Amino acid sequence: MGSFSIWHWLVVLAIVVLVFGTKRLKNVGQDMGQAIKGFRQGVSDDVALPGRLRDDTRERGSHDDERTPR
Description:
By secondary structure, this protein is mainly α. The protein has 3 helices and no strands. It comes from Lysobacter concretionis Ko07 = DSM 16239.
C-alpha cells in the first residue's frame, strides 16, 4: 500500500466539510493562527529575556561580593 492519491484526500476533505461545515472550519483555522502567533511571540520574548538578565547582573555586581563578611 502506497500513499493516498489526490482523490482520497479530496473525498476526506469533502466529508470533513460536510460534517463540520465551512463556518466551523474557518473558526478553527483562525484559532490555530492566533495560537501559533502567540506561541511565536512567547518564544521571542523568552529568547530576549536571558540577555536582559545578564545585563542586570553586570550592573549589580557578583553575588560573591554580597556574601563576604565585613
